[in-house]
Amino acid sequence: MIAAAESAKSLDGEGDMAIAAASSFVGDANGNDNDGDDDDAENDANGKMGAEDGGDDVSNAKGQSGDACNNNYNNDYNADGRFDHTSRKVVVHNILKYIRHKELQKLVASWLVGHESKNIKIVATKKPPKDNWVKVTLSEESMVNTFIELINTGGEGGKAMLNGRGKPLFAKRADEMFVNGGDRRECGDSGDGQKRKERHPDGNDGGENGGERDTRNTKRFKSSPEIRILSSDEVRDAITPLWKMTYPQQLDSKMKEMVNKCAKTIVKEIKGKFKILEREAKRGQRNKNSIQLYDWLNQLRAIEIDQPIPSPLKYEYRNKCEFTIGYRLVSDDRGEREDNTLIPTTTGGEKDTVDAELTMRDGVTKEGDDGEDEKVAADDLNITTNPHTSIAMSSLSTSTSNAEFRKVPAAGFLAQGWNGGIYPPHPLQNMPDWSCGIADIFNEFLPTSSIPPYDSKAHRGVWRTVTVRCSLRTRECMVIVLHAPATGGAGARDDGSDDYTRTFDAEKVRLVGMLTKGAIPTPKRDFPEGHCNDTYTADISGAATPSSATGMNKSGSEEEKVEDNNNNDGGIRVTSIYFQEYDGLSLPTPDHPVQHIYGKKYIEEKLGKCTFQISPGAFFQTNTDGAEVLYSIIVERIREVTSDPQRTLLLDVCCGTGTIGLTCLKEGVVGALVGVDIAEPAIADARINAKRNGFHDAEKAEESGVVTTTRFVASAAEKVMPEVMRDISSGGVRGMSTTTPVIVAVVDPARDGLHGIVVRTLRANEKIQRLIYVSCNPVGTLTRDAAMLCGPPTKKYPGRPFKPTRSQPVDMFPMTKHCEMVMTFDRMSKEEYEKYQA
Ligand SMILES: C[S@@+](CC[C@H](N)C(=O)[O-])C[C@H]1O[C@@H](n2cnc3c(N)ncnc32)[C@H](O)[C@@H]1O
Predict the structure, then answer these.
(1) Closest-CA residue to 470 (of 609, 604, 590)
(2) Which of 234, 512, 518, 656 is 20–30 Å from 827 (CA)?
(3) Are the C-beta atoms of 823 and 259 separated by less than 8 Å?
(4) Is 621 a pocket residue for ligand 1 (Cβ < 6 Å)?
């Protein structure tokens, strides 16, 4: 979130040009929102809730075209204390770089013409002078999805709207672009600077690839006058920015961040809410001193942060990597570039790469001065045939002010935005060998494929991304290849020149053959000196013993552990392959259909005392060893408050494949479990995982009459939570043995945090005494949600407040800035609460 805030700042920075809102817009010309800062309190004071309130109850939310997303996130403060309205902002790409002020206003206004019934109101627009995107602020977050859909599909024939020169526009939520760069359901550090589905601060999902999404995203939006090939150190800087620090230094910097940007911000935000009430009282909108500032907020360390618990593995810890497919730039000046910037190959050298160089058969897109792509005709290419590989080669180069490059189809990371090309994962210290081995296979396949990578600017081409997930404990590996339709993508030319239908199936077969012909090849890595030479042993006194619950912590040196993890003696093989066709302009949701092509339909992972099945669309923590530590902390926090586990029910919100809840059941700290997750594949896995680990699921139990201990619900938490809570409160959950449970809640949302309705439901239900919030965005959305949970009661957020009682960072993403936080909230006692009421 810090990086997200920085990215957002770069948008709002000096170089940006605020565009006066067209007359049909509301708001001002500076991009300031007119709806004021005090929505929450003002609405309360007026005794009515505006649309931003998210509705008083779920039926309201449901009533909104089935979308419960009209939340109140508009009232978020940035880490720097400013209001952040990012959740109402959309970035529309492919705007002409040098469009005139008035023309832009006209263009923006034209998007809404004929679509008045959609009730979209644009409050402000901002476009940096030399970039090809515009940031649009809508008056309510509930309009965001409709607006995005309108831009992406509201043009002729259901295609994207056009930019005035016939190029399709595409729109994305601003908070995805700057926080995750992708699907906001996911969590984490994507590590690759690319938009990602599963966003976990690890570089692939939320840092899905274990990298620094934020830096890269920032770079993507900066106009880069000069393109050059980054050195391996620079790639590491972009994706794993803490790599030069010792591990104690990394932990130290994360600790400071947690104190300054998480703990202090929460206190500041809660105090801010009291101030709003004070102002309202002065205006006569509320009884004077109806609630007084809590004492704990005035303590020196109002929220004490424990020392971060280190990741058991500091190197090569990722179990999932996501590669973008595009073009890498290869310097023409090869003789002088004997550094490590070219893809190391499994056969050990540049030669194969050189042999395999080719450019596209039908042309190359090259960015012209005005930011529009010029199509270079195939005739202009000097096509030759490579005698070794019999592939078409071209001498056409992309030139910049002082360098010339060839473009070679490749899979890897965008370390400096699309224009900078693809970089292989080999130099990145958080990437395990198997992931680079898979990248090598793709980097052998793609240059020899008759089908080109997808061009995300023109929306043409086919190969899009590769997701690889591997369990080193079960030695299973799944590959998911995302591709546009073989007919050539949303921006395919009408003349059929982008249609690859004839060769697509054969290419799929060839790729599957390459992926499965043997064990994943051992790559030639490109590590800096001292890799794995880390003898650090953490002093975690005062913190919970990481693996006391699961007993899974491996002993041995870092080198041994990594060696052990990478040991490919038995030969890790690809055990499962999926293809996923996607014609959209951003990324598919977890529920988007997949095509099973090869092997098993899922992979299995062992974690603690459980075994979990993971399907393609399901989230799973990307650092397995780190997840065990994380879960053991949760188990300990629950154990502290459960004297009778059999009567304790765990509410696992955003449960994924059921990992947290099932671990707690297995550890015997709770007797029953209700899990909620929006992703159907994850819930399908969770139900199977319950059975696989010896527990009964409510769905089946209802038919068979078996007493059950688990129930998993596939739904957005904001839609179903009030109903689930009502169920639990009115005598237990259908099909479950526990009828009067003590309830403990664990929430583990994606980077965008909890929906307002979920926060409100948890807060209003005083049966929940302890709430454990697991956050992959502790300096962002956790601070917002914590303030809602702990602030003074309002109409929107009624109920006795929670109080943060323990804050335990867990480092799941070494070398990146990301850190997971387990924050424990306990309900304020009645006696204490009464003290503050006037
Ligand atoms: C960080 S993952 C945590 C998953 C799980 N607790 C674990 O440790 O593996 C976040 C999860 O939130 C889910 N999610 C995202 N938005 C949601 C929503 N609105 N309602 C319920 N679940 C949601 C995602 O599908 C994902 O599984």
Answers:
(1) 604
(2) 656
(3) no
(4) yes
Residues 6+ apart with CB under 8 A from 104: 19, 95, 125, 127, 134
| Number of other residues whose CB lies within 10 A of the CB of residue 158 | 8
Is the distance from CB of 158 to CB of 584 less than 8 angstroms? no
Distance CA 765, CA 574 (A): 47
Residue 505 labelled as part of a binding site: no
Does residue 650 line the site of ligand 1, with CB under 6 A? no
Ligand 1 atom, smallest distance to 200 CA: 1
Supply the ipTM of this predicted assembly: 0.99
Q: How far is the CA of 197 from the centre of ligand 1 (A)?
A: 12
pLDDT digits (tens, 9 = 90+) for 1-28: 223 332 322 222 222 222 222 222 222 2
- The β-bridge partners of 66 are none
Q: Which structure tokens are listed for 784?
A: 């917002």
Following DSSP, what letter does each residue of 720-763 receive, concatenated?
HHHHHHHHHHTTS-TTBS-SS-EEEEEE---TT---HHHHHHHH
Over range 568-584, report the average pLDDT.
87
Instruction: Mention every residue, 6+ apart, whose C-beta is less than 8 A from residue 831.
Output: none
CA end-to-end distance (rounded Å), the chain:
37
Determine if residue 250 is labeled as part of a ligand binding site.
no
Buried b (16+ CB within 10 A) or exposed e, 418-429: bbbbbbbbbbbb
Confirm if 830 and 329 have CB atoms less than 8 A apart: no
Domains detected in the chain: 2-187 (3.30.70.330), 246-276+305-315+535-562+624-838 (3.40.50.150)
Alpha-carbon distance of 176 to 409, in angstroms, equals 26
Going from the C-alpha of 333 to that of each of 232, 329, 339, 469, the distances in angstroms are 17, 12, 12, 36
Rounded to two decimals, the pTM is 0.71
Which ligand 1 atom is nearest residue 682's CA? 27
Mean pLDDT, range 801-821, rounded to an integer = 97
Nearest to 411 by CA among 346, 363, 343: 343
The structure tokens 């990146």 sit at 816
Atom 26 in ligand 1: which residue has the minimum CA distance?
656
C-alpha dihedral sign at 284, 287, 288, 294: negative
Q: Is 748 annotated as a binding residue?
A: yes
Structure tokens at 78: 């940035």
Rounded Cα gap, residues 431 and 211, in angstroms = 10
